[in-house]
Amino acid sequence: MSTLSDTQLPLAPHPLVTMSAPKVRRYVIAGGGTSGHINPALAIADQLMRDNPAVEIQFCGTARGLESQLVPRAGYAFTAIRARGLPHRVNRELFRAIADFFAGRAQCRNLLKTFCPDAVIGTGGYVCSPLVAAASSLKIPVLLHEQNAFPGRSNRLLAHRSQVVCISMPGAEKHFKTKAPIILTGNPVREIFFKLTRKIARQQLNWNDKTIHILVTGGSLGAKRLNDAVLGLAADAAFAALQQSISLQIHVACGQRHIETVQAVARNLEWLDVHEYLHDLPTYMAASDLIVARAGAMTCAELAALGKPSLLVPYPFAAGDHQTENAKVSEHAGAAIRIADQDMTPTRLSTELAQLLMDPARLEKMGQQAKTLAFPDAASQICRHLYATQTP
Hints:
Largest sheet: 7 strands, parallel
Radius of gyration: 22 Å
Order of helices and strands: EHEHEHEHEHEEHHEHHEHEHEHEHEHHH
Strand order of the largest sheet: 3-2-1-4-5-6-7
Shape: elongated
Number of strands: 13
Structural class: alpha/beta
């Protein structure tokens, strides 16, 4: 199945350009389990608010999920429902998941009957299943948004119940079995990633412009494989030779679980700057010349927005190996070098750094190619396709 362009799918008028006072619209949104599902949901909600400040938005998800913290913190109403991921084999957990699905669907039906939304939005994760099933049973329009090149199981299973599926990476459409239109809109990322420049970010961090800065981040929890590869550079002869040629600084966000170990090894390494977590991650990313990271969908979208070259090391245990598929999109565009997790050794890292950092033209070209994968108006396009599902 191929994706549709904006010219092929009729769009509803923008809600702010109607002649009369706009109807108060209501939406229920679900997406959770990880920040990769929650942040796009919040970005869509923010766009809905920009389009029409009178809009009413209700989120739902599990009480134990990260969404129960991030959504209220962002200022949106949140309702806890029952939901549980389906295991891949028949066991006791499967029956618990089925029981939670039916209980969650009943909760969602009650919510939808009370709130009377114009449409429902799902951004992936098992928390979407009860909501989308309830909306389908009540004939309420559904929009799904998929962040990864290989769609998650929930979105794949629910696509046939939706009116439109928005995808973030080319090629994802072939994994869906639905008659609904599939539109490439991109992944909505925070506006700051499109506004920050290398110069501004370096001024904010007080970094020397003549020094090459590399950021290594394994996500909010860190990644031991990436941490070990960086620490191993201290004993690598080729890396030592590289340091003689250029002024180099590596910044690593190692994660709370690894901070003590990494700090102990890095204590005497002047070229290594260690952080447990970077609260100002967009600034560090914008200021860096090269980024070494996992290949989560949001990370890839943020790299594209910033136009940053990268070494992508997919997490090998991600569901459906979707991070490898994400990394392949950037690799095929010439924006990144993909390195399998087991191959990410100090020697491999040193080799890649030497080849890239001694070839500024190649780094610049990779950054330019990364920019071609960016979707600055992703949230706006998703919302316009959402409005097209609604009655006037």
